[in-house]
Design a protein that fits this description.
The protein is mainly α. 72% of the residues lie in helices and 0% in strands. Pfam families: HTH_3 (PF01381). Keywords: DNA-binding. InterPro entries: Cro/C1-type_HTH (IPR001387), Lambda_DNA-bd_dom_sf (IPR010982).
Length: 153
């Protein structure tokens, strides 16, 4: 993965859109896309530091100079397992990824029902009313119950 791909990956992983990132960095949306496409290879230090901050990572990770500590830990633990257990870990990981992707897709399609709440999910300072919180909890409880009916075997 190159710098741009890591930026895009982390942005999407955190559910941030390019406009939010552009505002945070003080650049245009097209500049963010140029970073992600690798069209701007030499990032100014202040931009790199802000990117790392907003993406909850390090400049070293974005530049590809370091792996995350979780990557190293997972690889080391995995290598210690016998082949049969490695296979089970792979199967479990694939199932977790599938579930995660289903949750992300579920979030994209269904949480839009409450436009006010969905519009402010990336704003950490947003305060919600008790009714909004209760509604979201009920919605998530229903989604969890549907999930377990579908996937719990």
């Amino acid at each position: 993965m190159n710098v741009g791909e890591r930026i895009k990956y982390r942005r999407k992983e955190l559910g941030l859109n390019a406009d939010y990132l552009a505002d945070y960095l003080g650049v245009s949306r097209s500049t963010v896309f140029r970073y992600e496409k690798g069209e701007i290879e030499k990032l100014p230090t202040e931009i790199l530091e802000k990117l790392a901050e907003v993406l909850h990572t390090t400049p070293g990770y974005l530049m590809g100079w370091e792996e995350t500590s979780n990557d190293n830990k997972i690889i080391n633990l995995f290598r210690q397992l016998h082949d049969s257990r490695q296979k089970r870990v792979i199967e479990f990981t694939e199932k977790q990824l599938e579930e995660q992707n289903n949750v992300i897709e579920f979030k994209r399609t269904d949480i839009v029902a409450d436009n006010t709440l969905a519009a402010h999910l990336v704003d950490p300072s947003k305060e919600f009313t008790d009714d909004q919180i209760d509604g979201l909890k009920a919605y998530l409880d229903k989604a969890r119950d549907e999930y377990f009916r579908k996937y719990d075997k």
